[in-house]
Amino acid sequence: MIANDVMDLVEKGLMLPLMEEFYTIQGEGYHKGTAAYFIRIGGCDVGCHWCDVKESWDAETHPPTNIGSIVANAAKYSDTIVVTGGEPLTWDMGPLTASLKNKGLKTHIETSGAYPLTGVWDWICLSPKKNKLPVGNIHQKAHELKVIVYNKHDFKFAEEQAAKVGKNCILYLQPEWSVREKVTPLIVDYVMQHPKWKVSLQTHKYLNIP
């Protein structure tokens, strides 16, 4: 059980359930190939059956960590910080991003948008899921839309989500890793027929890095 005073700090965003933090190469989307420091926050109830970090779902298994130490570690490695999960917007991201910005760091988030957008972000990657759709106005704020393709029905969902984003949002279709050999040809064909979309691959997995 987490003490009440600690839970109070978590609810205020002054502590966060930290699953892991690491310096690596961004493997997906617009910034692929760029060195970045990743902060993975625990807690997610979106429930994607193909999620490759299911261990992130239960926030109680990840220790509440003071955002001051999270920011201090991040500042040692990179000026680009990617906050991911889990679903980071489960928590108030305002204090974390304010502290990162005070250090002159660029703030990126990878989110399903299932909870209201908090925090100040230089880059928002919205990756919506059918299980729990985005809320609020995050579609209009997203810099990139990344839809994971598990089967052919996901193209319809992708178009529904693309209709909601701003005109400058970059559109990506990404094969779900476990079925990539099956769906990648479908994505290639789709992008050639609908060139407003781009292909995103999980290049970090091909590079065998985190």
Automatic annotation (TrEMBL):
InterPro entries on file: 7-CO-7-deazaguanine_synth-like, Aldolase_TIM, rSAM, rSAM_sf
Ligand binding ([4Fe-4S] cluster): C44, C48, C51
GO molecular function: 4 iron, 4 sulfur cluster binding; carbon-nitrogen lyase activity; magnesium ion binding; S-adenosyl-L-methionine binding
Cofactor or coenzyme needed: Mg(2+); [4Fe-4S] cluster; S-adenosyl-L-methionine
Cofactor note: Binds 1 [4Fe-4S] cluster. The cluster is coordinated with 3 cysteines and an exchangeable S-adenosyl-L-methionine. Binds 1 S-adenosyl-L-methionine per subunit.
Keywords, alphabetical: 4Fe-4S, Iron, Iron-sulfur, Lyase, Magnesium, Metal-binding, Queuosine biosynthesis, S-adenosyl-L-methionine
Gene3D superfamilies according to UniProt: Aldolase class I
Pathways involved: Purine metabolism; 7-cyano-7-deazaguanine biosynthesis
Residues that, per the record, bind S-adenosyl-L-methionine: W50, C51, D52, G86, S127, P128, K129
Superkingdom to which the source organism belongs: Bacteria
PANTHER family: 7-CARBOXY-7-DEAZAGUANINE SYNTHASE
Membership in a protein family: Belongs to the radical SAM superfamily. 7-carboxy-7-deazaguanine synthase family.
Subunit structure: Homodimer.
HAMAP family: QueE
Protein name per Swiss-Prot or TrEMBL: 7-carboxy-7-deazaguanine synthase
